[in-house]
Specification:
The protein is α/β, with parallel strands linked by helices. 38% of the residues lie in helices and 12% in strands. The protein is built from 17 helices and 12 strands. It has helices at 2-21, 49-59, 86-95, 116-122, 138-141, 153-162, 188-194, 203-208, 243-254, 268-274, 278-301, 342-355, 360-371, 387-401, 414-417, 422-435, 467-478, and strands spanning 38-44, 70-75, 126-131, 167-170, 198-200, 216-219, 260-266, 306-312, 315-316, 444-445, 449-455, 463-466. It binds zinc ion.
């Protein structure tokens, strides 16, 4: 009985869309007014609804993105798996195309699909791609490169050098010279420079950049893990360039008569959630929200011409806002007892403990110093460790110093440590649980994410829709007929004059 009803229902719906909005073939409402001149797409990698709420509760104030007038719920699944990955999700967001896990801006038959950045470039708009992780990582790459495997960093780096993008900023390149490639194509950085990019890798030169410098490829001097910016909580404001500063500079460099499309990724929310580190996740989420505020400031000066869309590519970690051990209570202020990220603790503190053959007694004061957790009385009682918790930490410490974490994907230990340093992840778990937060996974989850929008055409981002529709809706606001375009195919302007040209 249900099946014929659905056919009738969707036929009526499709006819209604045809009648009300012309040749648009999308499943949810599209925009049909004057095109936007300035378009921002912010992607929080791993930014699910729990991450947003946890950051808000930690900061004790609403996020700026929660005040956006349009709020939608977005499904994220990949073509070949319910729980998506960053490459498939970024392809949905950059081109409106569902694809397979690990595929960058290609359809499931491995045909390249045109991205929003490429469409904007074709229409004469300036374009920018910013990320807090390496600029050839899956999410940013899906806006300028087309590869069947996200790990083809060397190929992606060459596509970056050959791209028409005007501003790249954030993390570095993972394989510019092809050290890890079977077919090295030469130095992608040299190629980028030859193609007119000014290369910038220190804070002072970065802050001095002006429009007169032309096209820019800028990265942070300190790239401690995977060519990414340090976690927001580990950054040194005198040396590091924050995601907010990269965003602000991109706006300054791209602003002008031609209009622009700018994609900004908060990439390390995801990495913190993979490692079940709530403090790093919420502080990176707050930094991401601050970066969005730079676009809001721009919007306030150009309210009739600007669209800002903020979304997540998937949830990560199965973060939930409640834990059996704290029943109905939440103590998110405890998260601020942690003063360095899991990554910095592993790379600096744990590495030193291992090198010095330290005992558990040696480790205790460092655990208290960096996570606030107390082995003896005194201080905040909520941070006092029970005997059971102290034993869990000691067991993890012994595993850490014996170097056993390499075997952490064995059943039995994977659930405890997820392949991370056993001591570090046990400390984030215990601190997070004391705060009233729980994690169910070291990977992504299938829960929908929030999409928020402000500005011209924002209203079409209300409702419940798939991540492919985010790209199609953006196309409609850019003045492009919303559909998937193959690379090389000309974009179809909607039957009205484009704002840019
Ligand atoms: Zn992701």
């Amino acid at each position: 009985m249900r099946f014929p009803f659905r056919i009738v229902y969707f036929t009526v719906l499709a006819l209604a869309l045809l009648v009300t909005s012309g040749p648009v073939q999308a499943k949810t409402p599209m925009y049909s007014g004057k095109p936007a001149k300035y378009v921002f797409l912010f992607i929080g990698d791993g930014l699910g609804i729990p991450q947003r709420m946890a950051a808000e509760k930690f900061a004790q104030q609403r996020l700026g993105i929660d005040d956006f007038p349009a709020q939608g719920i977005t499904t994220t699944h990949a073509n070949d798996r319910f729980i998506t990955g960053s490459a498939a999700s970024a392809t949905a967001l950059s081109a409106g195309q569902k694809t397979n896990i690990g595929v960058i801006a290609m359809d499931p038959s491995m045909r390249p699909v045109k991205t929003l950045v490429q469409m904007a470039g074709e229409m004469g708009m300036k374009t920018g791609v910013v990320s807090s992780v390496s600029i050839d990582h899956a999410t940013p790459a899906a806006f300028y490169a087309h590869v069947h495997k996200r790990s083809m960093y060397h190929e992606i780096d060459h596509m970056l050098a050959e791209s028409g993008v005007d501003f790249f900023g954030g993390g570095g390149l993972k394989d510019p010279t092809g050290k890890k490639s079977k077919n090295p194509q030469g130095d992608a950085l040299a190629k980028a420079e030859k193609n007119g990019f000014k290369l910038v890798s220190d804070r002072e030169s970065f802050l001095r950049l002006t429009k007169a410098d032309g096209r820019v490829l800028a990265w942070n001097k300190n790239l401690p893990d995977g060519k990414a910016l340090p976690y927001a909580m580990d950054q040194n404001p005198a040396e590091d360039v924050s995601l907010t500063e990269f965003t602000q500079k991109a706006i300054e460099m791209l602003e002008g008569d031609q209009g622009f499309f700018l994609m900004v990724e908060g990439g390390k929310i995801d990495w913190a959630c993979h490692a079940n580190d709530a403090t790093a996740a919420v502080t990176n989420t707050l930094e991401f929200d601050k970066a969005v505020q730079k676009a809001v400031d721009f919007y306030n000066n150009h309210p009739e011409e600007t669209l800002i869309v903020v979304t997540g590519d998937h949830e990560c970690g199965g973060l939930t806002l409640g834990f059996a051990g704290t029943k109905y209570e939440s103590y998110y202020d405890l998260l601020s007892a942690q003063n360095i990220s899991f990554q910095k603790f592993t790379d600096e503190v744990v590495a030193r403990l291992k090198k010095e053959n330290a005992s558990f007694e040696d480790a205790k004061p460092l655990i208290t110093k960096h996570f606030g957790l107390k082995f003896t009385g005194g201080g905040d009682a909520l941070l006092a460790l029970s005997d059971h918790e102290a034993k869990q930490i000691q067991k993890a410490f012994e595993r850490t110093v014996s170097g056993e974490q390499e075997k952490a994907d064995e059943p039995g230990t994977y659930l405890l440590y997820g392949g991370y340093d056993p001591l570090t992840i046990t400390l984030t778990h215990i601190l997070n649980q004391k705060a009233g937060l729980g994690w169910t996974s070291y990977k992504h989850t299938g829960v929908p994410v929030s999409t928020s929008a402000l500005g011209l055409g924002a209203e079409v981002f209300n409702g419940y829709y798939d991540n492919t529709d985010v790209a199609l809706k953006i196309m409609s606001v850019m003045g492009v007929s919303p559909k998937v375009y193959m690379a090389g195919e000309a974009v179809e302007p909607l039957g009205r004059e484009l704002a840019v040209n």
